[in-house]
Write a structure and sequence with these properties.
Blueprint lengths: L2 H17 L5 H29 L11 H23 L7 E3 L2 E4 H29 L1 H12 L2 H4 L1 H19 L3 H27 L1 H12 L2 H4 L1 H20 L4 H29 L6 H20 L8 H26 L3 H31 L9 H4 L5 H38 L1
Antiparallel strand pairs: 1-2
Length: 425
């Protein structure tokens, strides 16, 4: 837009209209008011357009901060000038300063031209940068989504500074350098991503392990404590290789939490046993045996206390496995097999065919026992099918039904045999 030229034309036109000698004063005043109103209307349209355009323009700052700053400063001046003109319309054609012939309206449009020019350049840079730096932009957006700034603020700030430099290379037109630096940026961003995921998922487990160590679990239950360490190490390795495999990560975290609880319980049992006198060992063992007895009695009302604890546990495990197999077998038997479903379907079809045959035979017998029915009625003479033709067609229909029934009988018989064989197996 060449706003200045338009404004100059309007001002010249206003001067010519005001300077016409043959025009009465009232007409001059009316023409001037109409001209000022037209000028203000045009300025209002321009102001409204850029006010709406720049509402969400802050995102352009990334592509060229200096151009963005110039654009917004010019817009601020243009906005203030427009508000002054709007409140005092006569200012539109008055000089902006004593040392310049530029009017308030000229100055407004000058600032608008600066806004338009910088906005166009920023949009052009955005189009290029969004294509060249798409991987970096996607990675940074992901880091924001996992709140990397809250976990590693200083490192995230440095990474953001590096990220801004990528756009500076694009603004200078050095796209090759931008791509090279982007590779380094992605490497650093991936490293930060791994650290953030570890802090979110693994750090709480490590803190829980340190708490167990402070409670001497490492001393009372060293094997269980080592198992927790191994699970944590496996979790870290998984995150190093696949920081976004959250299903697998959650499974590892669940395993760590399980081993943490197990280690804590084992340590408690060891401490309880170490604090007992030798005379209390038997009661402790009998308590464990009583728990095994309650399980065996619940399963099959058996008593295994005449055997060692290890043997009791082994037999209980075997009994539970057998019970589970029986339940699974009963569940499968309760569900109809595919062959049984097919057999039931064929039986239903055969039953329907037999019903249709019986119906046809009954109709044939009724018509055969009523000779007078062969005399056409008024309705039949009007165009309906005469009864003699129906009687002649009935044997054919009966034979057709019989032909259909025979294959069904064979299919039902074969399905029944197969179902019987499956049940026997």
């Amino acid at each position: 837009m060449k706003y200045v030229g338009k404004v100059a034309s309007m001002v010249v036109l206003a001067t010519l209209l005001a300077g016409c000698a043959g025009t009465p004063d009232s007409n001059n005043e009316l023409s001037t008011e109409v001209n000022v109103e037209s000028v203000l209307h045009s300025a209002n349209k321009v102001h409204r357009h850029w006010r709406n355009t720049l509402v969400d323009a802050e995102g352009l700052k990334l592509y060229a901060p200096d151009k963005y700053a110039t654009m917004m400063e010019s817009w601020q001046r243009a906005d203030n000038l427009f508000k002054d003109i709007q409140s005092t319309p006569d200012l539109a054609t008055q000089s902006y300063s004593l040392f310049s012939s530029v009017t308030y309206l000229d100055r407004f449009y000058n600032d608008i031209e600066v806004v338009e020019s910088n906005h166009a350049e920023l949009m052009g840079l955005k189009k290029i940068a969004d294509k060249v730096l798409e991987p970096a932009m996607t990675q940074l957006a992901y880091l924001n989504s996992i709140d990397a700034n809250a976990h590693y603020r200083s490192e995230f700030v440095r990474l953001n500074r590096f990220y801004s430099n990528l756009f500076a290379f694009v603004a200078r037109g050095d796209l090759n350098r931008a791509r090279e630096e982007q590779t380094e940026f992605l490497s650093r961003a991936h490293s930060l991503e791994v650290r953030v995921i570890k802090r979110i998922y693994i750090t709480p487990q490590e803190e829980a392990l340190r708490q167990l160590r402070r409670e001497d679990v490492r001393y009372y239950a060293p094997l269980s404590y080592t198992k927790v360490e191994e699970e944590i190490k496996a979790g870290k390795t998984l995150i190093d290789n696949s920081p976004r495999a959250f299903d697998a990560i959650n499974q590892v975290v669940s395993a760590i939490e399980f081993e943490l609880a197990h280690a804590a319980h084992i340590a408690e049992e060891v401490k309880y046993l170490r604090d007992r006198n030798r005379d209390e060992y038997e009661s402790y063992i009998l308590t464990i045996e009583a728990k095994l007895l309650s399980i065996s009695q619940a399963l099959n009302d058996s008593d295994l206390r005449d055997q060692p604890l290890a043997e009791q546990a082994k037999q209980l495990s075997s009994q539970v496995a057998g019970t589970r197999q029986q339940l699974q077998l009963a569940s499968r038997q309760a569900q109809p097999t595919q062959q049984q479903v097919q057999l039931d379907t064929l039986k239903g079809l055969l039953k329907e065919q037999n019903r249709q045959i019986a119906k046809l035979q009954a109709q044939l017998l009724r018509m055969a026992s009523a000779p007078e029915a062969q005399i056409p009625t008024e309705e039949q003479q009007a165009g309906e099918t005469p009864l003699p033709n129906i009687i002649e067609d009935m044997p054919a229909q009966q034979e057709l039904a019989a032909d259909e029934v025979e294959p069904l009988n064979s299919a039902v018989s074969m399905a029944g045999d197969e179902a019987g064989e499956g049940q026997e197996i």
